[in-house]
Structures are given as C-alpha cells and as structure tokens.
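User: quick one, sequence for these tokens?
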C-alpha cells in the first residue's frame, strides 16, 4: 500500500517465522538487512507471499488500488486513523479519479468547507465511517492480480 517502510516488511517476515509460518521466500525476506530491504523487497515480496498462498496485488494496478483502499478503511475502523486522516490519504493518493473512492474524496472536500455549510463535523465523520464500513465489508477485488514473477 505504500504505507510502511521496507524494513517493516522484513520485521513482519521475522514475526511470521517466529509465529510458526515458514517458506523459503519468507526466510530470505526475513534475512534481509534494513539496507538491503529498500532495494530487494520489490523482488522478494511477491514470491514470498505466493509461497504462503497469499495474493500479491501491485499497488499501481486496479486490484492493488482497491485492496489498498479497503485496507485503509479497515485501519480507520480499527481506530488507527481518524475519519479526517482517512479521507485525506484517500484524496491525496487517488484524487477524484478512482470511482471506488470518489465519495471519500468529496467528503474530504466537505471537511474543508465545514464553516461555510450547515453540515457538522459529526455528520461528516458518520458518513466517512459508513463509507469505510461499506468498503471493508465488501472485500471483493474487481480485477485479476498480476501473476507473480517466477
């Protein structure tokens, strides 16, 4: 999603190994130094996920964008982002170009004009939360993932 550093992916791979998951790709990923991670993560992550039966969605593709939006929605619902932070990230990343997030971009705009309308912050928060729930509870990916390189 572009939300975490490569070294955090390496840390997550180490945590997965400690938790009992294991595959050759996961071990290679966990063995990366922090300096190597910035350069190697893009090549190591797809096969490592594939070995675990997980699908890799490139962030630039439609399926990757949709997965990223739904993950951010779940983060907001878990209290890791405020509704305002959530709409800011969505609007900043996709603008008004992605149909899946158009309403969230509009709601981000509404935060900017709160003093000039009859709408309250609580009303916008409630609508953002409802939209996040809609996104989080319909996790269907609309496009096929890109095949992982061999």
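Assistant:
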């Amino acid at each position: 999603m572009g939300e975490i550093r490569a070294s955090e992916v390496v840390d997550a791979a180490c945590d997965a190994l400690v938790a009992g998951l294991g595959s050759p790709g996961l071990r290679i990923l966990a063995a990366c130094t922090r300096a190597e991670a910035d350069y190697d993560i893009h090549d190591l992550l797809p096969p490592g996920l594939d070995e675990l039966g997980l699908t890799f969605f490139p962030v630039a593709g439609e399926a990757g964008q949709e997965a990223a939006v739904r993950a951010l929605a779940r983060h907001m619902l878990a209290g890791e982002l405020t509704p305002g932070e959530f709409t800011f990230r969505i609007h900043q990343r996709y603008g008004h170009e992605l149909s899946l997030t158009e309403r969230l971009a509009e709601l981000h705009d509404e935060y900017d004009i709160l003093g000039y309308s009859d709408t309250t912050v609580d009303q916008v928060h409630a609508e953002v939360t409802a939209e996040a729930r809609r996104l989080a509870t319909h996790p269907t990916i609309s496009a096929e993932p890109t095949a992982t390189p061999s």
